[in-house]
Design goal:
- The protein has two domains: about 30 residues; about 70 residues, Sandwich (Immunoglobulin-like), CATH 2.60.40.3080.
- It is built from one helix and seven strands.
- It has about 110 residues and is an alpha+beta fold.
- The longest helix has 27 residues.
- The strands form two sheets. Strands 4-3-6-7 form a four-stranded antiparallel sheet, with no helix packed on it. The protein has a three-stranded antiparallel sheet with strand order 1-2-5, with no helix packed on it.
């Protein structure tokens, strides 16, 4: 009886370990199949109730920013050299913001109140 529980426990441990390693491998290629992510990207405030958001990163290079609605329609496109983006034209709702900095890119959710 103890031997049976030992084998069941060993089998469960193996399956959980296998599932965890599969999740780790999945996350490493989630952003475009090997493209780089932006190091230290920070978009604030989020949720936003003002007319501007601030986008910072470790490199502080110029950024190409695109804002999409939840249906995938491009609502706003801008290139910023500082860290401030004017979003006064956005109505309250949920948006997807895509930031490109050099070869790196990142996608985040943006909530406008």
């Amino acid at each position: 009886m103890k031997k049976k529980y030992f084998y069941i426990t060993l089998l469960l441990f193996f399956l959980f370990t296998l599932g965890a390693s599969a999740q780790e491998n999945k996350g490493s290629t989630a952003n475009g199949g090997g493209s780089q992510t932006i190091e230290g990207l920070n978009i604030y405030p989020n949720p936003v109730s003002a007319d501007r958001i601030y986008i910072t990163s470790k490199n502080m290079q110029s950024k190409d920013v695109e804002v999409y609605d939840v249906l995938g329609k491009k609502i706003l496109q801008a290139s910023i050299t500082g860290k401030e983006l004017n979003i006064a034209s956005l109505t309250p709702g949920v948006y997807i913001i895509k930031v490109k900095e050099g070869d790196a890119s990142a996608t985040r959710k943006l909530i406008v109140k």
